[in-house]
């Protein structure tokens, strides 16, 4: 073992208190420290943050971390600052800071104290930030949630599109891009947009063997969900609905049925929203009924079920949302209700959109319908979508879906898969 590697383990222990690296973390960090551009595709919970936090802490200068959500950044900054006895090791730079606070951040960077600077892409283009950052020592750039660059991703942010030009203006340093989205289209888009086609790619399996996948027709849905939750009394769960109105209605319906549930969506008053989320995290409430606004960056390890009241708009979203179950490796039941009429409604909605958006939307819907209607192993289907092969007989978690444990009907499942995915 090289001296550098032994050293890295020491730093891991010192800052994070962990004795071993997870997955390919060590190799990723070593390559980044050696000046390589890196692309990391790892499922949620895989330990992506450490791949840039640790090298940032031990490098000279400041690493710039681009991240899409202010709430996410704040959590991370607090966590990093908790790792070190020094203050100002990590900062957020955005428009919420007043002049004095901004000056403090700038001073800490100049003095070499700040190892991680979290910014949203829309802040990075501000002229005075840009001018300042050009003149200080930058160790590397980390682009977290890099799928936000791609229209094929589940969370496209136009501000991410111009990142490459901004980075080039600031410094000529290595870039590490990280995402939990691994569809080949998104991957390709990210690499091209960031000019990283020569980057070293580290991809981990997206298989979540402890999750059970079930898709069921949307009939008597309210009753069915109440029954399901009552059977799982006291366990933590999330119910996803597409509209805010549905979220409110259904949370009420659950409450009326004696279930400890609260709503969550972006239209709620900020205070209520945060309070409801906290109650869920603190286990004062069992079930959260939510739109997709809920979940990004929320790390509750013991969510035991994720129910889709409405089918999601892409297989990618489905994977991300179901992925919030069983983070601790324990039981995670993923139950989705499917009605072709819901898909028709979504298609009508897409018809009003600009052409490119419509085409992407329709293709994503096609793929998710294929998944809903398939009779093959759901795990195999999902993993195929992420560019992985999976053995539906002996693979890890092979029995963990409705089609595997209770095959619906005999038909040529492989032809089915090809038809849907090679459109
Ligand atoms: P991701 O961004 O890939 O979703 P995170 O960076 O949030 O994942 O990490 C998920 C969890 O794994 C965190 O609780 C983190 O502390 C933990 N973790 C990361 N690396 C290690 C490690 N080497 N050993 C133990 N736990 C780790
Ligand atoms: Mg992350």
Automatic annotation (TrEMBL):
Q: Which residues of the full protein are shown?
A: 1 to 423 of 734
Kindly state which reaction or reactions the protein catalyses.
Couples ATP hydrolysis with the unwinding of duplex DNA by translocating in the 3'-5' direction
Entry keywords, A to Z: ATP-binding, DNA damage, DNA recombination, DNA repair, DNA-binding, Helicase, Hydrolase, Isomerase, Metal-binding, Nucleotide-binding, Zinc
Decide whether keyword Cytoplasm is in the record: no
Question: GO molecular function of the protein, one example?
Answer: helicase activity
Helicase ATP-binding domain span: 29-200
Query: What cofactor requirement does the entry state?
Result: Mg(2+); Zn(2+)
Protein name stated in the entry? DNA helicase RecQ
Q: Which domain of life is it from?
A: Bacteria
Give the gene name. recQ
The taxonomic lineage of its organism, from the top, reads: Bacteria, Pseudomonadati, Bacteroidota, Flavobacteriia, Flavobacteriales
Give the EC number(s) listed in the UniProt record.
5.6.2.4
Every copy of the Helicase C-terminal domain together lies at 220-366
Return the similarity comment.
Answer: Belongs to the helicase family. RecQ subfamily.
């Amino acid at each position: 073992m090289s001296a550098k590697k032994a050293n890295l383990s020491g730093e891991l222990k010192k800052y994070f208190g962990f004795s071993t690296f997870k997955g390919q973390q060590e190799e990723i960090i070593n390559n980044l420290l050696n000046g390589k551009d890196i692309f990391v595709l790892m499922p949620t919970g895989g330990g992506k943050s450490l791949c840039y936090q640790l090298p940032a802490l031990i490098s000279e200068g400041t690493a710039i971390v681009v991240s899409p959500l202010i709430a996410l950044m704040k959590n991370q900054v607090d966590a990093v600052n908790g790792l070190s006895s020094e203050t100002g090791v990590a900062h957020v730079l955005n428009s919420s800071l007043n002049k004095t606070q901004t000056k403090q951040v700038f001073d800490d960077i100049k003095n070499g104290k700040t190892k991680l600077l979290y910014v949203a892409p829309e802040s990075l283009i501000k002229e005075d930030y840009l001018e300042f950052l050009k003149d200080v020592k930058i160790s590397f750039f980390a682009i977290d949630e890099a799928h936000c660059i791609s229209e094929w991703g589940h969370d496209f942010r136009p501000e991410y599109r111009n990142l490459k030009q901004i980075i080039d203006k600031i410094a000529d340093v290595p870039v590490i891009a990280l995402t939990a989205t691994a569809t080949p289209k998104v991957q390709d888009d990210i690499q091209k947009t960031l000019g990283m086609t020569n980057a070293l790619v580290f991809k981990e399996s997206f298989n979540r063997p402890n999750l059970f996948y079930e898709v069921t027709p949307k009939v008597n849905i309210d009753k069915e969900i109440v029954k399901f939750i009552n059977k799982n009394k006291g366990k933590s769960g999330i119910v996803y609905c597409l509209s805010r109105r549905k979220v409110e209605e259904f949370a009420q319906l659950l409450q009326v049925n004696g279930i400890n549930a609260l709503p969550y969506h972006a239209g709620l008053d900020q205070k209520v929203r945060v309070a409801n989320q906290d109650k869920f995290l603190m286990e004062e409430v069992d079930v959260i009924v939510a739109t997709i606004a809920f979940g990004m960056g929320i790390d509750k390890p013991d969510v035991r079920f994720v129910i889709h009241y409405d089918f999601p708009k892409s297989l990618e979203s489905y994977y991300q949302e179901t992925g919030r179950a069983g983070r601790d490796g324990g039981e995670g039941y993923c139950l989705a209700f499917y009605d072709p009429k819901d898909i028709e409604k979504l298609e009508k909605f897409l018809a009003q959109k600009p052409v490119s958006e419509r085409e992407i939307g329709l293709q994503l819907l096609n793929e998710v319908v294929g998944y809903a209607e398939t009779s093959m192993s759901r795990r195999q289907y999902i993993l195929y979508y992420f560019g992985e092969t999976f053995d539906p007989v002996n693979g890890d978690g092979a029995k963990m879906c409705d089609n595997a444990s209770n095959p619906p009907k005999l038909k040529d499942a492989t032809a089915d898969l090809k038809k849907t995915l090679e459109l």
